[in-house]
Structure prediction request, 471 residues.
Amino acid sequence: MSDKPILEVRHLSKNFDANGVLKDVSFAMKEGEVIVVVGPSGCGKSTLLRCINGLERPDGGEILLDGQRIDTGADLVQVRRQVGMVFQSYDLFPHMDVLGNLTLGPVQALKRPKPEVEAEAEQALARVGLAEKAKSLPRQLSGGQKQRVALVRAMLMHPRLLLLDEITAALDPEMVREVLNVVLDLAREGMTMLIVTHEMRFAEAVADRVLFLEGGLVLEEAPPKQFFHHPQTERAQQFLNTFEFDAVR
Amino acid sequence: MQDLAVLFKGNNLARLLGGLGVTLKLSLLSVALSVALGLIVGALMTLKNPVVRAFFRLWLETVRIVPQLVLLFLVYFGLAKAFNIQISGETAAVAVFTFWGAGEMGDLVRGAITSIPVHQRESSAALGLTRGQCWRFVLLPQAARRLVPQAINLATRMIKTTSLVMLIGVVEVLKVGSQIIDAARYDAPQAAVWIYAVVFFLYFLACWPISLVAGRLEKRWA
Prediction:
């Protein structure tokens, strides 16, 4: 792990976006670090992720990947080849089988030889327990299986940084676990990840650091133990209480 | 059986087949032009420019509201009367059917493209694909799958509607059929049933292969 930040966000702002507004967000992350962003809906979590890989154009501030500005809108394709993203709704390509979904990016965007990518894809599928699904179509898979395929698809691009936008929010509870286990494995392997999630137990398990976002501002930034057990701001306490049903009884 | 014999009298069968040839020529020409133009029109219809949108909207509503027969009369007789432009019935037919087909096909293409969720575009962008690659590998293959059943439906409708062109003097399969019936009216008054049955069968022969191909594509892409 080098000390130079892999990603730096400085005074990022974005107005009038359907997914929430960012007012002034700054943070930096090192290689191999896992940061979990939590906060009430509409607080700008998704917008933050979408700004980082260029799906939204920020209105102010800077985003740097390995010290290079990536928020100018120039060379977005190059940026996205280094910053992977997985969405809530999986978004596999329905007309291609699993292997086709996995190899499209590396073969077309990175121009790698197809047999080599296919071999790597099959290995990666086996690691997430989907070895026998290579020839299946997305609609033949369960939600949890689709999301694992989407994770593998993003990882096969060997991104510098992986963005996960509420990837378990659309899943049945029993499928959440199988997806989160894959993410935990990635964290153990040293993948740099910026994760938006509502799974607080998972957040605590996977995060090196937690960012609490509220109203487009970072209200709290702390290691997970501290944030989840001794939140500093009243707003964070309130937010965490909404997950505690014992408090109601 | 004398009625059925009318079909084989003289060169009647050959004339019917010749009429079918005219029907097929007009249909294929119109369908081919409509598909080619429709792809372009459909792509233009997805643009947000208000002038472009209004133009195509007007076009589409025109071909939907005005009966094809009225359009045929307008082009064939109207042009001759108003501007003294004489065109053949076949030219007028291809022009009208292409005007109709390209408008409707364009709308189908537009629908097929816009019905693809925006997430498909975003997730292919997130994979580092260029815009061109996104269209080629992700959007167009999906649009084509949505388009084929409706395009086939339009094509068969166009083939059937070509029967209208006899009203502007083009002798196609149905017109040949009624000529044969008229000629045999006294000798074989019941011939109409047989002749129309044969015409029905010929239309079926023209449309059935298209439906077969469509069915097969739908099954493969389901």
